[in-house]
Amino acid sequence: MHAKKIDKLATGVLYTIAGIIVSILASLILYILVRGLPHVSWKFLTGQSSSYQAGGGIGIQLYNSLFLLVITLIISIPLSMGAGIYLSEYAKKGLVTDFVRTCIEILSSLPSVVVGLFGYLIFVIQFQYGFSIISGALALTVFNLPQMTRSVEDSLQHVHHTQREAGLALGMSRWETIIHVVVPEALPSIVTGIVLASGRIFGEAAALIYTAGQSAPALDWSNWNIFSVTSPISVFRQAETLAVHIWKVNSEGTIPDAVEVSAGSAAVLLIFILIFNLGARKLGSYLHRKLTSA
């Protein structure tokens, strides 16, 4: 009886802690949404921001965030896949491998503002890219690469060794077994990790203040010159993202409706991050069902 009472007490404590965590998260989400959604409209989502007049939108900032996300993933995914495959399938235990893993752990624990300052010194000044999308994307790659590499490595390691043995038994080389057997089997987990990383990239601000810039010049949608500062596909132009815009509006406060713009922008940003997080789990489950039923 004494053991059962302790078990019930421990279970109750755990449920209470879980309930507190869920309540805090739910309260935070509801507060942001209730405060910001009334200010969100189609005009707000597609309109151009204003520095001194009320009624501005977040259209350019929202596009910049999505475009920067795409460029960052184009750079990050091949690097993280290569590093994850190497650490999972080829790296032998030893000082070199331990050193690489230690470097990954250290990079993953760096504050984003430190990564931003590193990006400012290297990409903005040393490489002379200036405040631009490419500088921001490279800084975010440094910031997000450790997490994505670890996600890929863990996904590959969870594939049972019999899958590799089966590929080798069919006469495949080691590389062919990895590409045609191991990676497809781990694909749902890899995709989930990438989508979750996308939410982290989309909501990042500190690293982009020093690299991508704090201005959002008007875009000329008829201009497709990748080197033009007004081209929507140029990676060499400044690009204030939605997260940076929220920080800027709250820090400067030069527009009359700064509170409304900040609240609406925060609600939109939160919705996108929720979509990334919930979508990652749904997409991972869908891919898992498709691959297991194939």
UniProtKB/TrEMBL annotation:
Where in the cell is the protein located? Cell membrane
Q: Classify the source by domain of life.
A: Bacteria
Molecular function (GO) terms for this protein are: phosphate transmembrane transporter activity
**InterPro entries linked to this entry:** MetI-like, MetI-like_sf, Phosphate_PstA
**Chain segments annotated as transmembrane:** 12-34, 66-87, 99-123, 261-280
Q: Does the keyword Transcription apply?
A: no
What Pfam families does the entry give?
Answer: BPD_transp_1
UniProt cross-references to NCBIfam families, sorted A to Z? 3a0107s02c
**Protein name (Swiss-Prot/TrEMBL):** Phosphate transport system permease protein PstA
Q: What is the lineage of its organism?
A: Bacteria, Bacillati, Bacillota, Bacilli, Lactobacillales
